[in-house]
Write a structure and sequence with these properties.
- The chain has 212 residues and is α+β, with helices and mostly antiparallel strands.
- The protein has one domain (3-210): Metallo-beta-lactamase, Chain A (4-Layer Sandwich).
- It has helices at 37-47, 61-64, 67-74, 86-89, 92-99, 170-181, 200-206, and strands at residues 3-10, 15-22, 27-31, 50-55, 77-79, 118-121, 124-130, 139-143, 148-152, 155-156, 159-160, 189-192, 198-199.
- Strand 12 (189-192) and strand 13 (198-199) form a beta hairpin.
- The longest helix is centred in the C-terminal third of the chain and has 12 residues, at 170-181.
- The chain is globular, with a radius of gyration of 16 Å.
Length: 212
């Protein structure tokens, strides 16, 4: 199995919408289509890929704002995030107006996800970890076999997700990272919601938020 991935920066927030596919079957997953759906569809067509599902890490506008439109235009299911983010996906249109983003749609996922479940991405099984703090329902998708994770806005290179929202919880976020993610192994690389990728080992050693 040859799992491939590419990043499509979307919305003025330059969110890392991630396209993941199996190079043998060309079946693809889009993770966090925050907007710019035409651009996402163009990349799918350019690569000759067949979209089979949409996954969400959490319910913020720059990650989920384009999910309903992409579902409508492709006929595939929206899976995730955790049901604790219902308060966010129920009000994506309001989030869009607040940030000046056009075209956002409120969303009812086809399936909520929870820790302990798994999903298939590009033909590989990924475990699900509930990592609240940035948002109540933030999820991380991890394959220890492939040594890769998709972490949304839970963890960044040299930083962590914002927790200054009314529902944010700094202590909960740090705890989730330290007790759920870092023990999975230093060698696991991750794609985050914004900015460059990193790996758990580098962040364990150098991330100032994890060494307070």
């Amino acid at each position: 199995m040859a799992l491939k991935a590419g990043i499509i920066p979307v919305t003025p927030f330059q969110q890392n919408c991630t396209l993941v596919w199996d190079d043998a079957t060309l079946e693809a997953t889009v993770i966090d289509p925050g907007g710019d759906v035409d651009q996402i569809l163009a990349q799918l067509e350019k690569q000759g890929l067949k979209l089979v599902q949409i996954l969400l890490t959490h319910g913020h506008i720059d990650h989920a704002g384009g999910a309903d439109e992409l579902r409508e235009r492709t006929g595939v299911a929206v899976i995730g995030p955790h049901v604790a983010d219902k308060i966010l996906v129920d009000h994506l249109e309001n989030q869009g107006r607040a940030y000046g983003l056009d075209g956002a749609r409120n969303l009812v996922p086809d399936r909520w996800l929870d820790e302990g479940e798994t999903v298939m991405i590009g033909g590989a099984e990924f475990a699900i970890y509930h990592c609240p703090g940035h948002s109540p329902g933030s999820l991380v998708y991890v394959s220890t076999r492939l040594r890769v994770a998709f972490v949304g806005d839970v963890l960044f290179q040299g930083s962590i997700g914002r927790t200054d929202f009314p529902y944010g919880d700094h202590a909960a976020l740090i705890s989730a990272i330290k007790t759920k993610l870092l023990p999975l192994g230093d060698e696991i690389g991750f794609v985050c919601g914004h900015g460059p990728s990193s790996d758990f080992g580098t962040e364990r050693r150098t991330n100032p938020f994890l060494n307070e």
